[in-house]
Amino acid sequence: MSASDGASDAVSAGPAAAARPRNRKQLIVEAAGQVFSARGYHAASMEEIAAGVGISAAALYRHFPNKYALFAECADVMVDRLVAALDQAPPEASLHDVLAALTRVTVAHRAAGGLYRWEARYLAPVDRRRVRGKFGQVVDRVTEVVRREHPAPEDRLRAVAALGAIGSITMHHTSMGVRKIENLLVYAATRVAATDPAAAAGSAGLVELLAPPVPRTRRAEILAAAVPLFARDGFATVTNGQIAQAVGLAPSALYRHYPGKVDILVAACLQAAGLLGQAVERSLHRAGDPRDTVLALTAAYVAYSFEHNALTSVAEAELGGLPADVRRPLLLAQREHIAVWEQQLRAARPELDPRQARLLVHAGFGVVVEAGRALRWRDTVAHREAVTALVIGALL
C-alpha cells in the first residue's frame, strides 16, 4: 500500500477517515452481501462494494485479498447468524419460537439473503461443504421441533419447506412493516411445518402442462443443450465452447444461430415465461371456486417447476444479467403472474390485503424451491402432490 493509496482513502472517506469505525469489516460484509445478492457474484465488483461502505477499493483490499475471499466470508457470516439464533433458543423452545428467531434474522438481513438461493454454487467445493454443513445444523434443529410438535411423515421435508417460506423474503421487494412481515412469515412457516404432505393427494390430476417443443432445428438444439449447463454452472462460467461441444458443433458455428451467449439466455427466459403463462391459463380455465383455483394454480406451478426445473432455475437466477431492454418485458410478465396469484388468493381469503397476499404467494414459491431441492427434483406424482400440499399450507 503506497502513501498515495492511503491519501485517496482519506479523501473518499472524508472526516470519518480520522476515526475509522471499528466495525469496518462488518460493514464491508454487509454491503458486499447486498451487492452479491442483487447483482450476482460475477457481475459484482469490488469498486461497487467499496462505494457502498464509503471507502476506496484499495482500502477494501486491506481487509480482503480478493472478491472471492469476501464472497466466501459473506456466505459464512449469514449462515452463522442463523446458527447463532438457534443456539440462543432453549432446547424446549416451541416451533413458533424457533421459526420466529430464524425469521427475525432473515428479515433483518433481507437484502443480502438472496446470495444463497443461486450464488452459493460459485463457492469452492470446500467452502460449499462447510456452508451446507451449517445449514444442515439449522435444518436438523427445526426438524427435531417439527417431529416433536407435529409427528407425521416427511418431518425433514416439512422443516425444509418451512425454511423456504421464511427465506422467500430475500427474493422480492414487497414492502410492509417489519413486524407484520415477521408475523406473516412465521404464520406461513408454522402452517407448512404442520401440514400433512398427503393432504393434496389427487392434485396432480388437475395439471395438464404443454411440453416445450421437441428440438427439430439447430437453434432449438443449442437452447436445449445450453439450459442444463447454465443451471448447473451458472451463465457467467459456461463458455460457447462448452455449449458447442454439447451440440456437436464448432464454437464459431453457434454464431450462425445466436449472435452471442446472452441471446441464448434471452431465449431460455422467454421460453420459461411462455410455458409458465400457458400453465396458468390452463389452471384458471379448469378451476371452480376461489379455493379450487388456488389449488389448481399451485398444482400447475409445482408441476411446471419439477418438469422444467433447469429452465426455471436459469430464468430466475440469471434474469438480472439480461440487457435492460429485454429484462423489462420479462419482469412485467413476472409481475402479471404474481398479480394473478394475488387476485385468486384474496378471493379465497378476503381478509388479506394485497401486500399480505403477495408476501404469502412468494412464501409459497419459496416452499417449492426448497422442497424441490430437498427432493432433488425427482419428478414423481407423489413428490408433486407433497409439495403442492405444503404450498397450500402456506397459502390457505
TrEMBL record:
Domain HTH tetR-type: residue ranges: 22-82, 216-276
Stored Gene3D superfamilies: Homeodomain-like (1.10.10.60), Tetracycline Repressor, domain 2 (1.10.357.10)
UniProt keywords, alphabetically: DNA-binding, Transcription, Transcription regulation
PROSITE patterns linked to this entry: HTH_TETR_1, HTH_TETR_2
InterPro entries, per database record: DNA-bd_HTH_TetR-type_CS, Homeodomain-like_sf, HTH-type_TetR-like_transc_reg, HTH_TetR
Database matches in PANTHER family: HTH-TYPE TRANSCRIPTIONAL REGULATOR BETI, HTH-TYPE TRANSCRIPTIONAL REGULATOR RUTR
Protein name as it appears in the record: TetR family transcriptional regulator
Lineage, uppermost ranks: Bacteria, Bacillati, Actinomycetota, Actinomycetes, Micromonosporales
